[in-house]
Amino acid sequence: MKVNHHSIKHFFSSLKLTVLCLVLLMALVFMATIAQIDLGIYFAKKTYFQSLFVYWQATENIKIPIFPGGVLLGWLLLINLITAHFTRFKWSLKKTGIWLTHMGLILLIIGSGLSSYFSQESQMAIQEGESKNYSVSSQEVELVVISEISEKEERVVSIPQSFLTNNTPIRPQTLPFTLTAHQFYPNSKLGMATGSRLTPLATQGIGTQIVVAPLELDKDNEGNNVASAYIELFEGTQSLGVWLLSSGLGAPQKITIKDQTFTLALRHKRFYLPYSIALLKFKHDVYPGTTIPKNFSSHVQINDSRTQEKQDFLIYMNNPLRYQGNTYYQASFGNNDTLTVLQVVKNPSWIFPYLSCGLIFLGLLIHFIWSLITRSQKKV
Amino acid sequence: MGNLILILCFFILVGCKKETISVYTVPKEAPQVLSPAAAPQTALRWEALPKWQSQPPSAMRLATYLIPGKSSTCELSIVSLSGEAGGILANINRWRGQLKQSPLSNAESQGVMSHKTFGKLAFLIVNLPASTQSSKGILAAILTGKDETYFFKLTGNQTDIEAARDSFYYFLQKVSLAQ
Hints:
Chain A is α+β, with helices and mostly antiparallel strands. Chain A has 5 helices and 18 strands.
């Protein structure tokens, strides 16, 4: 296939492409805003902005792309800006402002792409007197197979939720067995098999006594979804039974293969930290004589075994804790004011919007001042 | 046209974020005791009494406590099941089966049930005392919620159940359903 470099350069540096991308982006934002009413913020972002295309589900197994998604438009706009910047603009002192402004725009788009790819939001619920070394996703679950390494440590094999939806064998290299997910329900209700019209599908474990009814995903209260899956284990070609794993089960289940015991569970996806956070005290202050909340605050202590340091911190509204690339915000509370729920945000590209706004401001200021001076000189 | 296909291939390659299976080593976790706040999917709220010992959760149980009785301990389990959970009679006979007692008919089951109100909630109390088949008895309270049925089941030797009865009823006073 012959590649025409000139036509590629012309296509990507075209002003028409810029206008087209901006118009499509506006339409995408409009569609996502309307869709967010039914989908919720997380799924609207994932469907419209964090994908190459917006798809129409024609049948259960066929998705047809019907509109460019945020990823495609972002890339097109970025390449368009870079190509136009280096092909159309010949640098001169009087165009410094325009250059800086364009650089700022390029940085802004790069930053939003990096943020979309690398940022992560999760929650950490800590009871007073306890500490946690992980945060939890309220939207995604993971299938974990845990085995003991020593008295103090365990190995966790984490299988993402996306592996559970396509009924193909899962072959983690570190395990002596393979898994196949026959059914996955993002939300479900568990009930005892006794007296139920449904039949348990599990042949091993506690699932032989439990029936599962699939439910619509609760998009408004993502933490309330109870994900369940029927997983069949195989040692070679021999089936080890079908197991029901669910985030609604109170405890994990165990299986012993070749003298090694493995713990199986389906749980909300965890993000482990190299340090732990302990909740020393949660306070919920109200205005005197009323029940109107005045302040929520969590007195926490970071225990970092790598540096042997312990740091106290008070987290309250508009005063998050920033530590090791994570930011901890006071989000919620419970259990009669003895439990704190922190929103944990990890965004390695947080500095890009500040840099780009700074560059754009500087560029516009320089361009404004230059234009002002030039016009004043012409008048004289 | 060729240029367009190349360009699309480039975007498809860079646009996909693939998830992978990850393996990592973490400190061993102590068995977690499930508390009402850790089980946000249920509307049930309760408060254990100070001397009650929390136990690690098992499948289907919201919580398990050991309650001191006269000579040993009783076990209190809190379970939530969807809808009518199979019906009251089916559950009574399942418990009777656990006590090695024969099942009851609908009419006979009326003799082991009574209705009591604790706080603002109405409970169905089921009393299955120990028999010659087993020294263990069951004292249970059933609460019907909006979409779920909640079972508070106290199991133990009959003397321990009698000693823990007042604590159990006091506990039920503190049970509530979130809106």
